[in-house]
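Two proteins follow. First one:
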Amino acid sequence: MPVYKVNIKWGKEKFSDVECNTDEPPMLFKSALYSLTGVVPERMKVMVKGATIGDDSWSNIKMLKNNMTMMMMGSASELPAEPAEKAQFIEDMTETEVNQASDYPPGIFNMGNTCYMAATLQCFRTVPELKEKLQNSKGRFSRQAMVGSEGVCAAITQLFEEMDSTSQPVMPLVMVKMLHMTIPRFAEKGEHGGFQQQDANECWTELMRMMSDFLPGEGSTTSETVRRSFIQQYFGGESATSLKCSEVEDEAATESVERWTQLRCHINTEVRYMQLGLTTGLKENIEKTSPTLGRNAVYVKTSLIKRLPSYLTINFIRFFYKEKESINAKILKDVKFPLEYDAFELCSPELKEKLTPARDQFEDLRQKKIELELSGKGLETKKPRRGEAPEKEAEKKYLPHWFEDDIGSSNSGYYELQAVLTHQGRSSSSGHYVGWVKHKENQWIKCDDDKLSIVTDEEILKLSGGGDWHVAYTLLYGPKRCEVWEEPSAAPME
């Protein structure tokens, strides 16, 4: 079905030429009406010639045409205040501003419900070690037709190279083709012949798995960690788990080690903050066969992290299967997440002890900066004379952020948010995915397929959920790095 321009009559108000794309779920159309009227979709009723538009399908609407009038009912909630700083679109910049913004990531064209892939790759591209590893692995690609993990890694490498060489949006033809060949379910088509929407976190997990298969670990051949793949080194964590039967006190607990590339933030009625959602998953009840009782029994599974990676991925468990509608329905609950995260409380006592020296270095640096600010020393900078260019700020040096014998680990447990993957809609197989990547302090780039715009920290924190706006689905935290302290020298007198 095509795109129509329709009129919306809401009480005494009328809105003309509202775009209605029937190839998209009706919920996206209702979200557009919400932006016009302030009526949230849950309280909205839109009717066309007596038929009510649903949330997931247009099937009950028999006929649409341009300039048709739709009736909308519902009371508006208070409209959100206009942000202090409006989003600045790169298309609206002058040539000078575009040149200054040349280090922004280029957009990725949508080839028909491929936003899940584009958002995922924009998040991956914020990891410099991953880009470098892919680039250095080009010599391992065979010259014959590549398939599987090798083909996907080659396609990601080619796409990242193209994105590095231009400021214009790129067409991910090879990437989409290779993804569809390797994972056929991502190539499934809908009743209208277009590609079906896919779950972005499934795409994230599958791409991580294939890169893990192909990219070898780093380090000397004698290193313990060389047995890990590159992905396991930089994105993989390990948890010590204990499984104890709650019905038989004498049955010994089973100890094991679980490896993961994502932590799961569980969401229930009590969870309002990410930290609680993470700690909820550290202790859970499961049912399994008890050798002592000879029947199924309840076991308590407890987990504590024994290894943290440099890059910590957190997935919000926002979707659950609704058997009646046969869809993965979405939990819209508002769950706050921080721009800086400390994973210390999730760790085992042994790991906490190992993390302490690096954490002490952060505290020492903080104290020295406070002392410097209070003393006023080194705060004045030499002003350039007329015709002189200002002196460049000295490049900062940082202490290692991993353990010397464990490449790609985190030696402090401190992290900074660097990418967010969001979903807008009511089910994982519909709606729209967007990537949000950090550019510099208090400045992020919203990567909405080929459209880029600048947003602030405040707008990132609003992605926590609670409505039909973009909602955080997967977070990527990078290492918080500790500066090497250098005593400032006094500014020379004029």
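Second one, unrelated to the first:
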Amino acid sequence: QSDLKAFLMFECAAAQGYTPAMNSLAAMYEIGAGVEKDIPKAIDLYTKAAELGDKSAQHTLGLLYEQGELVQQNYESSMYWYEKAAEQGVPESIHNIARLYARGLGVECDYKKAMETYLKAAAKSFALSEYCIGTLYYDGLGVEIDETIAYEWFEKAAEHNLPVAQFKLGSLYLNGSVRQDKDIEKALHWLTKAAANEHCLAQETLGSLYIKGSEVELNYEKAFYYNSLSATQGSYIAQHNLAYQFAFALGCEKDLVIAAEWYRRAAEQGFHLSQHQLGLCYLLGNGIEKDPVVAVEWFQKAAAQDYASSQHSLGKCYADGCGVEQSYTLAVTWYKLSAAQGLPEAIHNLGRMYYQGLGVEQDYKKALELYQQSAAQGLAASQHNLALMYESGQGTEKDQTKAIELYSKAAAQGHSLSANNLALRYENGEGVAQDYGKAIALYTVAAESGLAVAQFNIGRLYEYGKGVPASDYTAADWYQRAADQGYARAMYNLALIYFYGPRVP
């Protein structure tokens, strides 16, 4: 292989007026292959070959004048050379003439003329023109909207292996339309073909479908395959999904370092979900060195796009003084922005700020109102705090029945403090009929989650034989678990058992 020898041969042939050689020589000057790059020389050779009737050179000049990168953009000149090539039957030039009419470049926009010209190229089986005809029928440009005809043209183009047409058909069958029902089987057929032809959006779509498992059977391995292909081509959606798969070992081995890198690539493209996740990586030190300051920077980028979760995270950072100077006022500001979008965690934390009087004037009624909003969305922490307020009568009249109801809802979601508090009510018969069995069951749920006070309470029931056979040994075991977490009352009771010795086995 020798660019120089090729150049010299082309030069000799071109000197004899052989237009294909002139065209090839121009291309070598254009890209600097075998000779120093020389754009004016390339244009001169393309023009000479075109004027001598070389259809490839004519088409190339049409492209160059349309694009305006190597020569001054001139749509009239572009049209002139396309027409010359079109007269010789070059389908690409016929298609491009149609495109100029469709976009009104150098000529008045004329969809009917565009359609007429696209049809000429389509008669030569030029797939891109077939696709464009389908688009005109689908959108009703220059013709009446006709989805049936549109689908026929899209299918012709797809059968001619045009990736964009295959993707279009796949998307249409996936989502359905006014006259076409959803057809997942056909959608997968065309999306898979487009993906095999390296269509980035088709790969991205398949990756998303398989990772969600809503329209198709969940398949993390296929999701990983397609997300990897699309992510490599630069799709920020696929990059984000791929990061998620690496983070949670879905269809691949868990690798937080790789996950953070893919989140970064998508985040740098401005994708708010990845900016938020990258912020969490920096905040928690997942796959990357912990850096709360950088975490805040990424949260700010996503929050600037009105992403509620990042606004909430910024509120927490300001409330805790993590990565920023502590400011309850700014924490409230960010919580309000996030809460306005309905994020239950933000509504809850805003309620907490009003309850404690942090960054705002203390207002139990406002706190109660906010807790009610987030509790209604099913947030267990809000249901728990609301129960406490109904029990104590803060911001409202005391209502033990509502408190029990809210503790029950939160406990059913695994909220350990609520399970413990509800257990206390069953143990003592407060607001409910006394039931040691339910008390033990609820204490156990909370204790197994690691809640020290629940571990202490189970120990207490065993020590005094409430609802269970008395056993200082079993009591000591539960006290020990709570004591290991530094719970003082458990330490004290355990110390008494050691001091006096177990009274019952």
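SUMMARY FIELD: The two ends are 92 Å apart (CA to CA). Residues 204 and 237 are 7 Å apart (CA to CA).
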